[in-house]
Amino acid sequence: SQQGEEDPQALSIQEGENATMNCSYKTSINNLQWYRQNSGRGLVHLILIRSNEREKHSGRLRVTLDTSKKSSSLLITASRAADTASYFCLETSGSRLTFGEGTQLTVNP
Amino acid sequence: NAGVTQTPKFQVLKTGQSMTLQCAQDMNHNSMYWYRQDPGMGLRLIYYSASEGTTDKGEVPNGYNVSRLNKREFSLRLESAAPSQTSVYFCASSGELHIYEQYFGPGTRLTVT
């Protein structure tokens, strides 16, 4: 089955700027989750948004969900060098779990 | 709490050899998962276990078998390794299948020559 799509594939910004990543999916979802992966490490859960929610916040993270467009976005505000990582969305639908291919974020000091 | 642990961290196999990857969680989670991650890609689900005593195929199950030994442990077996199985393998667990966030182990880097 085809994985979800994320864009951009890579994003390079300066410290203090905001970073926005997008995820498109193909089916009706139970929820959509965002994860971070530092190089060579396991994934760390950031935020989960349910299909009946439109926006969630957690610290400097803001996630939106548009079920009519089958898309979600992750906004990281006031980015830091420590935010440098790959970011993945995960759509859960019925018994299916599908990760996106990820966005590589580089935050330059 | 250790969270999710995986052994070994690294492994090199020759084509045709077999091995078992071990995974354990101490969070009393019902559901456990095995994924593989190839360079520059997202994770693909190999097998999952919704609860103790049950296992189901994911997106890429061919060439693998799993055992949910008890609530804590979920192992992944490669019966006859192939170079196409060179990858990083991650185990994860969650409170309930698909409803809650997943917690990941550190991964096993497997090379098949």
What does this structure look like?
- The complex is a heterodimer of chains A (109) and B (113).
- Chain A has no helices and eleven strands.
- Chain A has strands spanning 5-7, 10-14, 19-24, 31-37, 43-50, 55-58, 61-66, 71-76, 85-93, 96-99, 103-108.
- The mean pLDDT of chain A is 92.
- Chain B is built from no helices and eleven strands.
- By secondary structure, chain B is mainly beta.
- Chains A and B meet through β4, β5, β9 and β10 of A and β5 and β10 of B.
Descriptors for this entry?
heterodimer; A: 109 residues; mainly beta; five-stranded antiparallel beta sheet; B: 113 residues; 0% helix
Topology:
The complex is a heterodimer of chains A (109) and B (113).
Chain A: E1 5-7, E2 10-14, E3 19-24, E4 31-37, E5 43-50, E6 55-58, E7 61-66, E8 71-76, E9 85-93, E10 96-99, E11 103-108
Parallel strand pairs in A: 2-11
Antiparallel strand pairs in A: 1-3, 3-8, 4-5, 4-9, 6-7, 7-8, 9-10, 9-11
Chain B: E1 4-7, E2 10-13, E3 19-25, E4 31-37, E5 43-49, E6 56-57, E7 64-68, E8 74-78, E9 87-94, E10 103-104, E11 108-112
Parallel strand pairs in B: 2-11
Antiparallel strand pairs in B: 1-3, 3-8, 4-5, 4-9, 5-6, 7-8, 9-10, 9-11
- Structural class of chain B comes to mainly beta
SSE string of chain A, helices as H and strands as E = EEEEEEEEEEE
Order of helices and strands of chain B: EEEEEEEEEEE
Give the class of chain A from helix and strand content and strand pairing: mainly beta
Summed up, the helix count of chain B is 0
Straight-line distance between termini of chain B: 36 Å
Strand content of chain B: over 45%
Principal-axes shape call of chain B: globular
Query: What oligomeric state do these chains adopt?
Result: heterodimer
Number of strands of chain B: 11
Tell me roughly what share of residues is in helical segments of chain B: under 10%
Q: Tell me about the biggest sheet of chain B?
A: 7 strands, mixed
Strand fraction of chain A equals over 45%
Distance between the termini of chain A: 39 Å
Main pleated sheet of chain A? 6 strands, mixed
Greatest chain-chain interface?
A-B, 24 and 26 residues
- Low-pLDDT ranges of chain A: none
Shape of chain A: globular
Radius of gyration of chain B: 13 Å
How many runs of DSSP E, i.e. beta strands of chain A? Answer: 11
